[in-house]
């Protein structure tokens, strides 16, 4: 199953275990689907919006949230829910508040 712009809204509330940015390999199957127009990856701003919406709507969850890969957009995301929700979402909100040029740096 491919997850991209066309079907993301249907599944965003079902994610429960891992939040990880999607990076594609030029030699992988996903890249072939992108070139064929069957998959449209999200840009950084859309990833940030979806991640923030997901995190803000988590209720009744006791879990760790950690950005655990160097390629992740928000490497500073790290904390425990529910007590660290503000600290976890703060870098994402700061990114979304930046102007476009700052977001591209």
Write up this protein.
This protein has 105 residues and is mainly α. The protein has one domain. It has 5 helices and 2 strands, in the order αααββαα. It has helices spanning 8-11, 29-35, 44-56, 85-97, 100-103, and strands at residues 63-66, 78-81. It has a two-stranded antiparallel sheet with strand order 1-2. The longest helix is centred in the middle third of the chain and has 13 residues, at 44-56.
Briefly, what is this?
By secondary structure, the chain is mainly alpha-helical.
Topology:
Blueprint: H1 8-11, H2 29-35, H3 44-56, E1 63-66, E2 78-81, H4 85-97, H5 100-103
Antiparallel strand pairs: 1-2
Radius of gyration based on Cα positions: 15 Å
List the secondary-structure elements in sequence, H or E.
HHHEEHH
The unreliable regions are: 9-21
Share of helix, binned:
25-40%
How large a portion of the residues is in β-strands, by DSSP E? 5-15%
Biggest sheet: strands side by side, in what order?
A: 1-2
Chain oligomer state? single chain
Supply the number of helical segments.
5
How many extended strands? 2
**What is the terminal separation in angstroms?**
32 Å
Average pLDDT score? 76
How many separate domains make up the residues? Answer: 1
Shape estimate: globular
SSE-based structural type: mainly alpha
């Amino acid at each position: 199953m491919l997850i991209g712009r066309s079907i993301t809204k249907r599944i965003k509330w079902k994610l429960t275990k891992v939040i990880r940015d999607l990076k594609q390999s030029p030699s992988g199957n996903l890249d072939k689907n992108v070139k064929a127009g069957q998959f449209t990856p999200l840009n950084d701003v859309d990833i940030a919006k979806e991640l923030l919406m997901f995190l803000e709507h988590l209720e009744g969850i006791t879990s760790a949230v950690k950005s655990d890969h160097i390629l992740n957009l928000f490497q500073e995301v790290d904390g425990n829910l529910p007590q660290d929700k503000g600290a976890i979402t703060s870098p994402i909100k700061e990114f979304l508040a930046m102007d476009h040029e700052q977001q591209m740096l």
